[in-house]
Design goal:
- The chain has 433 residues and is of the alpha/beta class.
- The chain has a nine-stranded mixed β-sheet, sandwiched between helices.
- The protein has helices at residues 3-17, 24-31, 34-39, 42-48, 54-59, 66-79, 93-96, 130-146, 158-168, 190-199, 216-227, 241-251, 269-276, 285-289, 316-320, 344-355, 368-371, 376-383, 392-397, 402-414, and strands at residues 82-84, 105-109, 119-123, 149-152, 173-176, 201-204, 230-233, 255-258, 280-281, 418-421, 425-428.
- The protein is globular, with a radius of gyration of 22 Å.
- The protein starts with a helix and ends in a 5-residue tail after the last strand.
């Protein structure tokens, strides 16, 4: 079978199963290749996955996707997009190690070599303020200059700033999209998109033509954390999609950092929540780099911050040079007298107008794999939680020390196992089917 035919089978399988499919690994474990999956009888497919319905069984036929596969591969060939599949050496092994790896990864640019240096995910809110943008730029610039690869989502706000800072440091960076490789979202990131593709890689599991639908972004976040050895949350409220990335990082056994913020600022509530639950504090790039130097001591890739290029500081002009929109509260910062920019509310409206759609982050329900990340003590606490509304006082009454009860409930909330309710109460969340 030719390379093109093998690639076509993988693309067809990705279309048949859809993104973030828990069925991919069981099928590959049993059948070995997409070709054998498509050739299998329904009885054999059901022996592996008894819950497959008629629609899912019908989708596991190559002929059903042949025309779309042809369109996708023609586009990729025409536009120089590489199609990475799990049987290729260039497909990141860390990505296939997660429970729901992508069957296909579309790539524009060149993926930095895995294992030569740490990959650090830098994520945060789309409506960052000047503080968040300055910190994200400084951390990302210094990480990249020291030899780390910054991984982000190329979205408005912190993600875009992180990518721009890595480029300014002269280092490759990776951006993971929540849409097809042929879509630039938001549209005003067109220049940044091109820069990342030139100096690093743009990747996505979504087929060309896929719009930036709201539900794509939580799905996308697991790839950011999977590619990263650690994830740094710079700024985000308690509902921020960045906390979804943090949850995936914990599920995948990655280390987690958060940047502390003003306790009165809603944008920092998510980071402060992570810190209270035990995330590592990120006050500087050195805090993050110190976790990796012993792993890369035999290479010249990870350098001391004393040896890297001089960090000159973030400015609105630097960010705008990449086509980024900056926060409205830069005026007066670092002695600058800048005209007032559009308010954050207007920034969000402008972002929606770029695609004509509303992009709210949809809640991700926990899966059974979430429980595997808990310690024995934490699992015992979770198993004793009632199905109805409850307070931490209930756990204390069961003999759980107050400090442990508070820490456990904070962690459960981060992992999406419980949700906080009015009046200081909590509620267990249903599991994702």
């Amino acid at each position: 079978m030719s390379k093109t035919q093998r690639c076509a089978a993988w693309v067809a399988l990705s279309l048949a199963l859809g993104p973030r499919s828990a069925r991919l690994k069981p099928l590959l474990h049993h059948f070995g290749t997409p070709e054998r999956i498509f050739a299998a009888e329904q009885s054999e497919l059901l022996s592996v996955l008894p819950d497959l319905g008629k629609g899912a069984l019908a989708a596991l036929k190559f002929e059903k996707h042949e025309r779309e596969v042809g369109r996708i591969l023609a586009y990729c060939d025409r536009m120089g997009v590489t199609v990475l599949t799990p049987d290729m050496p260039a497909y990141p092994a860390a990505l296939f190690a997660i429970a729901e790896p992508p069957a296909v990864l579309y790539c524009r640019g060149n993926m930095p070599a895995v294992g030569k240096c740490p990959f650090v995910g830098v994520v945060g809110t789309r409506t960052a303020d000047a503080y968040g943008e300055r910190v994200a730029y400084k951390l990302s610039f210094e990480l990249a200059a020291a030899g780390a690869v910054v991984v982000s989502g190329l979205a408005e706000g912190i993600d875009g700033v992180a990518a721009a800072a890595a480029i300014d440091a002269g280092a490759p960076t990776i951006a993971v999209l929540g849409c097809g490789i042929d879509r630039v979202y938001p549209k005003h990131h067109t220049r940044l998109f091109s820069e990342v593709a030139e100096f690093g890689a743009i990747v996505t599991e979504f087929a060309p033509g896929t719009p930036p639908n709201s539900w794509n972004f939580p799905i996308r976040n697991r790839i950011i954390s999977a590619l990263s050895e650690t994830v740094v949350v710079v700024e985000g409220d308690e509902k921020s999609g960045a906390l979804i990335t943090a949850r995936y990082a914990l599920l995948q056994g990655k280390s987690l950092f958060a940047v502390p913020g003003d306790v009165d600022c809603a944008r920092s509530a998510g980071c402060n929540l992570l810190l209270r639950a035990g995330a590592n504090i990120a006050l500087s790039a050195e805090d993050i780099l110190s976790h990796f130097r012993f792993l890369y001591r035999d290479t010249a890739m990870l350098r001391s911050l004393d040896d890297v290029m001089q960090y000159a500081g973030a400015t609105p002009e630097k960010l705008r040079a990449h086509g980024l929109h900056v926060a409205s509260d830069w005026e007066g910062v670092a002695g600058e007298d800048l005209p007032r920019k559009s308010t954050d509310k207007k920034r969000v409206k402008r972002e929606k107008e770029d695609e004509g759609e509303t992009h709210t982050v949809r809640e991700v329900l926990p899966t059974p794999q979430t429980l595997a990340t808990l310690t024995a003590a934490q699992r015992s606490i979770y198993d004793n939680l009632p199905d109805g509304a409850f307070t931490i006082d209930l756990l204390v009454g069961l003999g759980v020390p107050a400090k442990d009860a508070v820490a456990a409930m904070t962690l459960f909330e981060i992992l999406g196992l419980v949700s906080s309710m009015p009046g200081g109460t909590y509620q267990k969340k249903p599991f994702d089917a």
